[in-house]
Amino acid sequence: MDNNYRWQVFPPVPDECEISKDKYPPLVRQILYNRGVKTQKEADVFMSVEKGDYYDSSLLPNIQQATSRIYSSLMMGDTIAVYGDFDVDGITASSVMYKGLKKLGADVMVYIPHRGDEGHGLNQQAISELISKNVKLIVTVDCGVSSYDEIDSFKKKVDFVVTDHHLPPEKLPPAVAIVDPYLPESQYPFKDICGAAVAFKVLSFLYRMIGKENEVWQFIDYAALGTIADVMPLLDENRYIVQRGIESLKHCTHPGINEIMRLSKIDKDKLDAEAVSWYIAPRLNAAGRMDHANKAFDLLTTDDLDAAAALAFEMEELNKERQKLTTAFCTIASDQVKDKVGKEYIMITGHPEIPTGIAGLVAGRLCDKYGLPAIIMHYDEEYAHGSARSVAGFDITEAMAKCSDILVQYGGHSQAGGFTVAMNKLDEFTARMSEFAREELEGADMRPTLSIDAVCDLREVDMGTFESISTLAPFGFCNQAPLFLSTNVRPQELRVMGTGEKHLKFKGIQGSVGREFVGWGYGPQSNEFNRPLDIVYTIEVNEWRGTKSINLIIKDLSYSSTL
Question: Which domains, ranges and CATH numbers included, belong to the chain?
Answer without folding.
Answer: 6-12+450-559 (2.40.50.460), 57-314 (3.90.1640.30), 327-441 (3.10.310.30)
